[in-house]
């Protein structure tokens, strides 16, 4: 008794999750039993079983077809299939050729099986979204008055302190206030290598904590977390039809009307004009309705694009709609922002040139000692370089006093009662007439390369110069080469930086054209000019000032890890990993999707023509027509699912 009671909810769940498959199975069993009954001469039972097969297998298609006809005044392929099946049944009853009723039931069965297979195929594209949703923790361990308390994540508020132990998921986007660890951010960025995190770093919901316990401060509502935005955007992308799909749907509506009219004419005119046999003519007209239906053509696009969206989400490439995946396959020109996109966006010491008799370590240590009192990004870069283990030298405690900041010039102070200046040449060499003769040529060379040169002097001696620059991403040159290999005709750089620096970087990585000194509206104008010449133009950026250009571009692409919220919301595609090679992967996905869609359309149209020819020469029966029609639909659907593979 208990086993029976437990089986009920289990079967209920199966029916709820797989209604199409169960309907197809039931239809098949009833069809076989009905055919067997007719074969044994049990006419009444056979017809009853076949009628049940018609109802169970064709109910959903009939309901959808009639709903579309009633509400939208449009014919669709579901209704065409039902009309063809009922026509075969009616013709069989009229002529007492009951095999025609079986033929109609076979049509219903194969159509039901096809629908179940297509439903299963579509479910595969949703698995990545479900896996993302499973990474969202349901509860969080909140610290209240020194005590731990588990509460639902949805009830977290900005400012709450939460504790995350090793091996646990980060429950919501937060800032680390205590602890050090490594996080697996594969769910967000697509990168499998752990990332080190410490106090002050931001961590994202759905990422997996490594070996260290963390105390976090919630800094935004849980519903606004990055992973929740990813889930919502991918769901939205899967529901929005791209232009090609909208065109096919409009074509299908008109095409279905033409097929119905042609089917009626084929059933009536030949007997009236040429005296053809009515039964054979009607039978051929029914086959025509089946084989001419555009099911395969309808399945040529969306399965492919949905598979591409799911594949991209798995790699950390977030397409906000199928239209953008489709557009990526057509990109002919790409515009890059410089800072934070082609470059790291962080200043680093790239060269240290000491004067005669001075070491690099001494130059850096003196400069870093003063710059430690500065909050300027250049000073932070020098301090960071001075603290690197291979550059640090043992020294006694220094006495630093009278430190003064000189805005726009540099910083001065006394180290062990010796005057020290760090900054621009005009500031450092102000009271040292021979200063610039020492390292003047080296300074000019570094500045010509777009680097910022910081001079370091102690008393009357120039110690050396330090070159600071926003370094180019290590992948940039290789990525630009890959993009050109993929057929991108023009690659340009848009930046608000000075032209000298921009051109030096562009030359290093192979950029075709440089537009420097641009304001946000200037970037928009450049994108418009590129669109006039190349039609489909992508823009890659990460900052607020890039948002207008991202919106103007045919495809706006934001660097997700480093990008501003405005850029992420404006862009059409988000590269969740802060890596440019994801751009190459996105374009490859777009190119592959276009190739597969074209293959599917050619195959679908070609197979329809082949079946029509076979019908007109009289070499095809209704079941064979159904198998060919539905088989081509399944093949096209499975072809689109190829994009699920990396």
UniProtKB/TrEMBL annotation:
Regions crossing the membrane: 21-38, 100-121, 255-276, 282-306, 601-620
Topology within the bilayer: Multi-pass membrane protein
Keyword terms of this UniProt record: ATP-binding, Cell membrane, Ion transport, Magnesium, Membrane, Metal-binding, Nucleotide-binding, Translocase, Transmembrane, Transmembrane helix, Transport
Domain of life from the UniProt record: Bacteria
Key word Transport present: yes
Family: Belongs to the cation transport ATPase (P-type) (TC 3.A.3) family. Type IB subfamily.
P-type ATPase A domain ranges (all copies): 135-235
NCBIfam families in the record: ATPase-IB_hvy (TIGR01525), ATPase_P-type (TIGR01494)
The protein's name in its UniProt record: ATPase
Example GO molecular function: ATPase-coupled monoatomic cation transmembrane transporter activity
